[in-house]
Structure prediction request, 174 residues.
Amino acid sequence: MLASSIVPETDVLISTVIYLVQRGVTPYHFSIPRGRNIDTQEAKRKLDAAFRATNINPSFSSDGADILALSEKEWWHIECKGAGSGKPQTQRTNFDRALSSVVSYYGEDNSKLPEKFSGAIQYLGLALPATDQYIRELKRRVRKPLRQRLNLWILLYDIDSGKIRDIEPNQELK
Prediction:
C-alpha cells in the first residue's frame, strides 16, 4: 500500500468487526471515531448500517476501547486507527496514541463480565492500515516479546481487499 493512501478509521473498524465475527467473537461496545475531518454522526450511521447486516446491536460511547468483543474464551480490547494525509509526524503521533491506549487496557478486571464469560482470556488488538509508516513503527517499537507479554495481536487492514490480516503475538512482523 502506498504511504500516502487515506484510510478512514471507520473502514478499519468495520473490517475488524467482520474479522472478530468470523473468529466467533461478538463485538458489543464501540467508541465512535473522532477527530479532524471525521463526521461522528455519519460514522455512527455507517457503523449502525454495517452492524445491522451482522445482527449486532452495539452500544456506543465516546471513550474506552474502540471495540470490545467477547466469546466464552476471548475478551478483546481493540484500538483502531486510520491513515490520513497528515505529515509523517502526525501519523507517528496517531500510532503512539493507539499503542498507548491499547496497552492501557492490559490486565483489566474480568470480574464484571457475566459468569458465562469468566474464563475468557484478555486479548489486546491494534488494528491499523498496512501502510509503510505503520509497519515501520510496528517493527521498530512493538516487538515480539512485548506482544507476547501483553497478548497483543496486530490486525493489519489491507486497503486493496478490505480484509484484516492478523499477526499473533508469537509471530514475526513481516
Summary: The longest strand covers residues 121-129.
